[in-house]
Automatic annotation (TrEMBL):
This is Ethanolamine utilization protein EutN. InterPro entries: BCAA_transport, Leu-bd, Leu_Ile_Val-bd, Peripla_BP_I. Keywords: Amino-acid transport, Signal, Transport. It comes from Marinobacter psychrophilus. Belongs to the leucine-binding protein family. Residues 1-28 form the signal peptide.
Amino acid sequence: MRLTTRIKHWFLPLAATGLFSLTGLVQAEDPLKIGLVAALSGQSAKSGEAITRGLTIAIDEINAKGGILGRKVELLRRDDESNPNKGLLAARELIQREEVAVLFGGLDTPVSLAIVPLANSMKFPFMAVWAAGTPITQNGADENYVFRVSAVDELVDEALVQYGIDEFGMEKPGMILINNPWGESNEKGFRKALESRDMEWAGIERVEGNDIDMVPQLSRLKDAGADSLLMVANVAPSAQIVKSLDRMGWDVPIISHWGPAGGRFSELAGENAAKVHFIQTFTFVEDQQGKGADVMAALKKRYPEIQDLADVTPAVGIANAYDAMHLTALAIENAGSTDGAAIRKGYYAITEHDGLIKNYLKPFSPDQHDAVGPEDYVFTHFVDGRIIPLDR
């Protein structure tokens, strides 16, 4: 064998070893990508921005401590435009092309419900941080890859009914619900809550997202003897319900899911926006203390346009996303990899986390994929464009 050939054969294994080492180094330095599918445009764009801000502040904190598994975290966003088909396409693109480690979901229950089968079939972790539809996490999958740091419709409906009784002496509510799977989820929850108390309801009316006149539906509820309204709709239809009530001259208590918090509700609904009492998982307050004060300071530094409480509306999107990102970081660290099945087990292995909403103690288990419960809900309303807690 010629000398040059012997040298070549001797060098190749070393070259290959060096190449593999270099590849490993490059991979170790690649960012760990997190995906977000949310409403980033339209009437509910504030919700998508709030979720983005919560994730970003958490990611800044995580990266300042060295990232996850030694890798810096990068957020990739896609606008679902509150459209289930667009949300599903965006989810596929983030998972398959961008190779994100975990997918976060946004405002709309119909969009999240479209993504759930994809996540479970691909064994891919999907974290919901706003959409409250009960079937999102309670989806019947043998191996459930969907987790949530947010409200849950069935639990919210129970809380809303009790609030109506306690605060307004509600005896015969009318339901006015958005005509989509979110409305259907809440109808089931309201029926269950009312039936458990042997209470009747005046009727159930549906509204569409683009309706501008709800007087016919509201008139039927009024004629049927409704003494209060249980409302479930996002920003635009909720605002139109308030304006329709104004045109009717009907002053009736409105007890609402958190849809009004997702955008420019106080601006769209007008001076009577404050009459709508709605539920939240968190809200910033004046003279904030503890972790809330730290997060508020970080928000003001990262986003100079934030000057006061009105500029962090809706706080619930910020808080849910912030806590969910930190819990996800713990899950991935527990997993020791970005394998979907390992991350799923990593969520179950979380023992404790001091979050913004609360101190989480074993927040997830194979039988419980919702980290937030009724004890974490607060009731609020809009005052001068700010979401303010109601004294109870």
